[in-house]
Specification:
Shape: globular
Main location: plastid
Number of strands: 15
CATH topology of the largest domain: Rossmann fold
Radius of gyration: 22 Å
Largest sheet: 7 strands, mixed
Number of domains: 2
Strand content: 15-25%
CATH superfamily of the largest domain: Alpha/Beta hydrolase fold, catalytic domain
InterPro entries: AB_hydrolase_fold, Fungal_lipase-type
CATH architecture of the largest domain: 3-Layer(aba) Sandwich
Helix content: 25-40%
Pfam families: Lipase_3 (PF01764)
CATH class of the largest domain: Alpha Beta
GO cellular component, one term: chloroplast
Distance between the termini: 12 Å
Family: Belongs to the AB hydrolase superfamily. Lipase family.
Number of helices: 17
Low-confidence stretches: 8-62, 341-350, 432-467, 474-480
């Protein structure tokens, strides 16, 4: 992994209590409590969810005009007044970017028996159409690959090739090239979209939770995410593969030069691991280019990425981050610890908090600060959602709470903190991705306790038995 991160250059209006709201007004004009005639059973299964009709509107059916207010929707005012209640234009924009992330998943070759495993299934010219995204007004300009920096043990030579796949297709760059869409958006938008964890080594990188220095200013980021962003490598025929960082820099630089003088924006979006990569890429773009366009991150179910200095550096850059978080999603609560709500002098005492409690919290923070490599900080603004607010998402698994489709469903339904779910929200067609199964094994015990759930997703793999043994040995021996 490169030791230098920055170069010299430059997502029913009804809540669980039955709150019904008027969505055609940006403010809540009426609240009416009603009772569900048939409450959703607590033992709802994924099989029942899979039979739900796909009613979520595609982005081409959301022609809401952004126009002159585009900077507000890109977070230039930190989405002030737009999140609670959730502005309809902003909802549409979050869903639109969520569909771009979906395309990154759908275009990934998941079949380990395929000679094209972990590559993009579709050429740039037809990627959106093949993924079911029509009339986006964007064209894909570059496929992106991420490479793991983990040193593999020698005994892995006997493993199936898919286990040791180090470099894989992780997303793409696209640029708006349709005049009508440019007019609707109020600028020419550049999109970078990243999928979540999909390969063994990416999953192992997720577990490298210690912080690594990004710059000399004290900014640090999670080691595994940074490794995937900055590592280069070679393929099976020893062809050199550029790091994700260098590829993104070069492609964004080319696009900025092509459209120099135009009103531009850079929106980087991702889910899970992709959300972490999106945050790192945004940090990098603002640092690398001398005069970058406004940079915004739309993050779905992302883990923590960096420490307090990393967050402060993002803020000073002017990078805007909107984190869409499901309260029931464990991935948004890892890795490390967060103590941003307590100042260093222990003086932040809440109205209902005793001095003794405050002092204890301050003492805990000081002890945690002694292990800086585990002290993280949340970045940007947060749109907090909850699976339990949807009548369609009761009693679902940990993996379901993390799935991108769940996030898009919750965004589609959310109204406000006082009216969490709208009656006109679309049901979701639940298509759990393999990526979601990986969230259940963040430690050795979780892996052993959830092998059955993993095998349900990986039963088609002849190598499943080897896969579980491989992970067990890695945890027993530790990562390099």
């Amino acid at each position: 992994m490169s030791s230098s991160f920055i170069g010299a250059n430059p997502i029913r209006n009804m809540s669980s209590s039955g709150c019904k709201c008027d969505l055609f007004n940006p403010t809540i004009t009426r609240t009416q409590c009603i009772t569900l005639v048939q409450p959703t059973k607590s033992n709802t299964t994924l099989e029942k969810m899979k039979n739900m009709p796909h009613l979520r509107s595609p982005p081409s059916l959301l022609p809401l005009k952004v126009g002159k207010k585009w900077k507000d929707y890109q977070g230039m005012s930190n989405w002030n007044g737009l999140l609670d209640p959730l502005d309809e234009n902003l909802r549409a924009e979050i869903l639109r970017y969520g569909h771009f992330v979906e395309a990154a998943y759908k275009s990934f070759e998941f079949d380990p028996s395929s000679p094209n495993y972990a590559t993009c299934k579709y050429p740039k010219s037809t990627l959106f159409e093949r993924c079911g995204l029509h009339n986006t007004g964007y064209k894909v300009t570059k496929h992106l690959r991420a490479t793991s920096g983990i040193k593999l043990p020698s005994w892995l030579d006997k493993a199936p090739s898919w286990v040791a796949t180090k470099s894989s297709y992780v997303g793409y760059v696209a640029v708006c090239d349709n005049k009508e869409e440019i007019k609707r958006l109020g600028r020419r938008d550049i999109v970078v979209a990243f999928r979540g964890t999909s390969t063994c080594l990416e999953w192992l990188e997720n577990l490298r939770a210690t912080l690594t220095r990004v710059e000399e200013n004290g900014a640090m980021a999670e080691s595994g995410f940074l490794s995937l962003y900055t590592s280069s490598g070679s393929d099976n025929v020893n062809t050199s593969i550029m790091s994700l960082q260098k590829t993104v820099r070069e492609e964004i630089g080319r696009i900025l030069k092509t459209y120099e003088g135009e009103n531009l924006s850079l929106t980087i979006t991702g889910h899970s691991l992709g959300a972490a990569l999106a945050t790192l890429a945004a940090y990098d773009m603002r640092s690398y280019f001398l005069r970058p366009p406004p940079v915004t991150v739309i993050s779905f179910g992302g883990p923590r990425v960096g420490n307090r200095s990393f967050r402060r550096r993002l803020e000073r850059q002017g990078t805007k981050v909107l984190r869409i978080v499901n309260s029931d999603d464990v991935i948004t609560k890892v890795p490390g610890f967060v103590f941003d709500d307590v100042d260093k002098n222990g003086a932040d005492v809440g109205k209902n908090e005793s001095v003794h409690v405050a002092c204890f919290r301050s003492w805990v923070q000081k002890r945690v600060e002694e292990v800086q490599w585990l002290l993280y900080s949340e970045v940007g603004e947060e749109l907090r959602l909850c699976s339990r607010d949807s009548p369609y998402l009761r009693g679902v698994s940990i993996a379901t709470c993390h799935d991108l489709n769940t996030y898009l469903h919750l965004v589609d339904g959310f109204v406000s903190s006082t009216c969490p779910f709208r009656s006109t929200a679309k049901r979701l067609a639940f298509e759990t991705t393999i990526s979601s199964t990986f969230v259940i094994a963040f430690d050795h015990k979780a892996l052993r306790n959830n092998v059955g759930e993993l095998s349900g997703e990986l039963s088609s793999f002849d190598e499943f038995e080897f896969f579980t043994e491989f992970l067990t040995q890695v945890f027993d021996s530790g990562l390099e």
